[in-house]
Design brief:
The protein is an alpha/beta fold. It has 10 helices and 10 strands. The strands form 2 sheets. It has a 5-stranded mixed beta sheet. A 5-stranded mixed beta sheet has the order 7-6-8-5-9, sandwiched between helices. Helix 2 runs antiparallel to helix 10 and helix 3 packs parallel to helix 4. The relative contact order is 0.21.
Amino acid sequence: MMTTPKRILVLLAMGITVHLAFLGAALAAEIRVLSDGPLEPALVKIGEAFRRDTGNQVTFVFAPSPVIQKRVTSGEMADVLIVQPDFVEELAKAGKVALGERPVIGRVGIGLATRADTPGRDISTPETFKQALLNADSLVFNNVASGNYFAKVLDRLGIADAIKDKIVRMSPAEVFNRVLHSKGNDIAVGTITLIMATKGLKLIGALPAEFQSYIIYTAAPMTNAEQPETAKAFIRFLASPQSKDAFAAAGAN
């Protein structure tokens, strides 16, 4: 049987442990991050790593950069923005983004995708790339900036008129679903990260180097951040080796 002094010591130790647990919970912060969608596959894992390392929680909201800009301009609150640099500059002019460094955290290239159960295609050269597009039953890409860029690629290839009846332009959220429910000879154009993360899709390959374009992303703290120090710590964490590994594994660099 435990003696009284020992029981007292045990109870004191238990009390200290409980107190420290509550203190840790009280000190932990939660930040809200508004981010462009193509970085979602990497950022979810990075957010989990940040929580494990610091105890701080990260809640992500994903939307296209133009949508985020409108929402923030209309008064939506967050701690960190991860969007394309032009949108950060506009929001900085509006006083929504804090002054200071806005590091580039990654870039995402454009690729072609088809259903996972279809044969592979070679698009490693301009000629094989061109033939793959000509041979598709339909070519599906979005109606925002990256889709507008790809339309110019078709002009550069000299096939825009030849395949104009095959082109289907949709909102970014609908492109992959259209190809997933096709007969199998349809091609989607999209960001490599989201192609790789979409079940049922297969990455045919990245656009050949001479036609590739990268979407660059930068991170910035908001002026109305409720947790400004944690926001800055998260932005620094985005440059850590484990974050860079997560970006690379998701198809970003």
